[in-house]
Amino acid sequence: MKKYIYIFILILFSMGCDEFLEEDTRGILSPDGFYATEAQANAGVFGLYNIVKSNPIYGRNILLYTTYGTDDMTSSRRFGDANTLLDASLSTSNLGATVGIWNNLHNLVVNANSVFTGVTNSDLSPVIKDRILAETIFLRSVGYYHLTHMFGSVPYHTEDLPIDELAVLGETSAEDIVAELVSDLKATEDNLPTSYPSSEAIRATRWAAKTLRMKLLLWQNNWAEAEVVGKDIINNSGLTLEPNFADLWDNDVDGFTSETIWQMIYAFDLQTSPITDFYVPRLRDEPADQADRQALIDALNANGDGFTGFGLLIPSDPFIASLAPDDTRTPLNFTQEYEGIALKFPYTPKFQNFDQQTSPRFNHRDNTVVFRLADVYLMLAEALNEQNKGDEALTFINVVRARAYEPDRPNLIGLDQAAIKQVISDERRWELAGEGHRRYDLIRWGTYIETVRNYDYGSLWDPSGIQDHQVLFPLSPTQVELTPGLQQTPGY
């Protein structure tokens, strides 16, 4: 029994100690008799959102591990998580943050199954029950979406299993898991509301579930169904592209825009957003010319700003070189100055917040946008192009480009399928830089290994030795040894 408890602790280590004091440790909340009211069921669901918001998932690590090691970002200096990806050095003895990602995604799945069982067995009204079950299925699907993209075949379960059964659960292929996720989401997504009040804005709507299903359909090369879903979101959600790209990243509106489909909500002095510190400069590194240092400090103080971050996530030189001066996204993707003072490193302003009153170091309140409408437009264009509907695909690309370029560029017309593929890749790179989509895009297109192998991350890293199996992440050898049904990721 000790072995099984250790396995469970590996899966659920981020929950803390208190949860293990109860005899039944299958989930955060007991499925037996807890959900007597809608408020209690909602409490169970919000426990799942707290897992999703945690550092190993959307708080930090998944965003780092889907951004580093792509053709967007590099690092200002060597440090652990960056090195493993920019050097392509992930291995069973150099796991980086992959263990935390694995554990917390399984934590999400285990507890989603517990909530699902509790709500299923409750006496809640059918309407409330169907809504909360659909929300739980969505959150469980988020866990498996990342697990399959990062690790391939993994243990798959949709029941609230006891510890001894979890320990010996065999693996299911990524293809089979994705097929189940698509089926589950399709069957339940319309039970979700089309919107929530701002006080509950973290909760997944119908459109968030459809966006996740669309991403999975692209993974399956199910272009026709992805087209249907994408048009449904664009035509029926009531969401519109924010007219000004910069307004998507306005800290004063906390990410509540006409374009946001799903986001993580963080709060000053409560549950804060740690990823922001990776984008905010570190004052000791700046400015480029030390003769300007006092002028920089004075300018920061005058604005109530501070360079109090880590300054680690920075745009790479090839990415900067790809940016166009007439693209309104460029100033949000790259700057190398503050109030006219030249900085040593380039930075990505759209994720920065320098405000020392409401967003100081380790206490940022900035929301993390997970899904937004421009992503759907470009996914729809991809689905159409793969069906040889190139002219229609260009109409959706042109909508995104119309917002991006000032003055407006002429609409793209008459491109062949290969040229449209390249346009989609470029536009997704510039539109969604650093938002956690690029690694999965490159893997889906079959270009990840080639891109990394030939990419210039700067003189501190050499990714040329990346191997084909590194498209996926390794598992902890200890966890593989202790879990009879678990196999090491092939190639490691």
What does this entry look like structurally?
The structure is a single chain. The protein is mainly alpha-helical and 492 residues long. Among the domains are: 1-192 and 447-492, Serine Threonine Protein Phosphatase 5, Tetratricopeptide repeat (Alpha Horseshoe), CATH 1.25.40; 277-364, no CATH class. It has 21 helices and eight strands. It has helices at 2-12, 38-53, 55-59, 61-65, 80-86, 98-120, 126-151, 163-167, 174-188, 206-219, 223-236, 276-279, 293-303, 317-322, 330-333, 373-386, 390-404, 417-431, 438-444, 448-453, 477-482; strands at 73-75, 154-155, 171-172, 260-264, 313-315, 335-338, 341-347, 368-372. The chain has a two-stranded antiparallel ribbon with strand order 1-5. Strands 2-3 form a two-stranded antiparallel sheet. Residues 1-31 have low confidence and may be disordered.
Concise overview:
By secondary structure, the protein is mainly alpha-helical. The chain has helices spanning 2-12, 38-53, 55-59, 61-65, 80-86, 98-120, 126-151, 163-167, 174-188, 206-219, 223-236, 276-279, 293-303, 317-322, 330-333, 373-386, 390-404, 417-431, 438-444, 448-453, 477-482; strands spanning 73-75, 154-155, 171-172, 260-264, 313-315, 335-338, 341-347, 368-372. The two termini are 29 Å apart.
End-to-end distance: 29 Å
Arithmetic mean pLDDT: 92
* Major beta sheet summary: 2 strands, antiparallel
Which stretches are poorly predicted, pLDDT < 50 over at least 5 residues?
1-31
* CATH-assigned fold name of the domain at 1-192 and 447-492: Serine Threonine Protein Phosphatase 5, Tetratricopeptide repeat
Binned, the helix content reads 40-55%
| Tally of helical runs | 21
Strand order of the largest sheet: 1-5
The SSE order reads HHHHEHHHEHEHHHEHHEHHEEEHHHHHH
- Going by CATH, the architecture of the domain at 1-192 and 447-492 would be Alpha Horseshoe
